[in-house]
Structure prediction request, 171 residues.
Amino acid sequence: MPKTSVTSAISATVDDVASILEGVERIAGVLNKPRSVVLIVENHTGRKLTRIWDHHDHGGYAVTPSARIAARGVNIYGSQNKANSIGTGTTGAVMYSIEGDDNLALYMYWKNPFIGANKCGAYLCSLLGITSPKTRQPLFIPYFDDELKAVATCGAGDQAAEMRFELLKGE
Prediction:
């Protein structure tokens, strides 16, 4: 297969395993910095997700996330440390609103530091309707729901470490 340029996130359905694997491979091929992550967001629900906020404390997107993730959709993108940065790695977060409730959101974060272990997390949150003046981040409190569940799985390694975030139907 000829090598193609990746300029935007890869989108697929959660049932399309071949497309997900191909997407991870393509995003990993674009990442070329000492610290990088492949971010995989799987929406296993019948609700659409809309990106409402994102931020990097360190690094930036090598491949940008899509603005929306379809119901039962997957979005794959990548983050890496910035050029000429010394000892920083990549640290960031994304927040998606969840269709069906104006105040409900999915918050996800990742950290692939220059020194130390990788970290990531995901949780549901209730938006408070105000934003932080400094980062423009929507302020929120944790939200617990029997209908939905947020899960994060952190990959190891320095380059193209996979960080998987899933929004699941509750049990």
User: Anything to note?
Assistant: The chain has one domain: 10-169.
